[in-house]
Amino acid sequence: MQIGGSAALVGQNDTLDFLAGERRERAILRHMVFSLTMGLAFGALGEALASGPASLHGAIDPYAYLLLVAVVGRTAAGFGWALLGSALAALGPVIAMLAATALMPEAHLLRLDGDGLTLNFVFLSLAAFGTLAHFAGYEGLRGDLATGLPAGFMAIQAIRALQDGTWTVFTAAILVAVVLLCMRGGVGRVRAAVVALALGAAHFVYAAGG
């Protein structure tokens, strides 16, 4: 009787493990679909605004893209999934740029025969940014730097936008920096903020001295 009860318990545990694994796989699949879909939507929005006010388009491209890939990377189930999800999200703006170039070659800055390097740079930069955001959930110095360095880069972009008087870009850069810092919890958030502020202050001093 005891052996039969143990076998039933083992079978029940196996079933629960299978169901948990299935739910995890479905969640990962939904995350991949979300990454690609939102990437395409953001890319289409950016290209639609390309002929509008420069300040508004500058806030969408690239800051909305960076915000998207950061969220995708941070919410991924693991490093490999963060890399894949960020790459899928980064494909959206690239596909939108290619479509705009093909449909309106005379009104678009890119040329399919000469700007492949530009597209590659956009794709790799966005994918790397999202993957880096995944490490914000890690403990220790690795997580602090993975959060503080990109947030500091955003702070530098905000300072440059403030100097140029483009308030929409300034707001977008600050928003991305704040979201990145919010991805880090506890004391790690404070340490990451110190890294970001140090980078921003160093750039400000350098720009003021120049």
Describe the structure.
With 210 residues, this protein is mainly α. Mean pLDDT is 83; it is low at 110-114. The chain is built from 7 helices and no strands. It starts with a helix and ends with a helix. α5 runs antiparallel to α6 and α5 (141-164) runs parallel beside α7. It has helices spanning 2-48, 54-74, 79-103, 116-134, 141-164, 167-182, 186-209. The radius of gyration is 21 Å and the shape is flat. The protein has 2 domains: 1-137, no CATH class; 138-210, no CATH class. 84% of the residues lie in helices and 0% in strands. The chain crosses the membrane at residues 28-50, 87-105, 117-136, 165-183, 190-209. Keywords: Membrane, Transmembrane, Transmembrane helix.
Q: What is the string of helix and strand elements?
A: HHHHHHH
Tally of extended strands?
0
How many domains would you count in the coordinates? 2
Helix content: over 70%
How many alpha or pi helices? Answer: 7
Transmembrane segments: 28-50, 87-105, 117-136, 165-183, 190-209
Keywords: Membrane, Transmembrane, Transmembrane helix
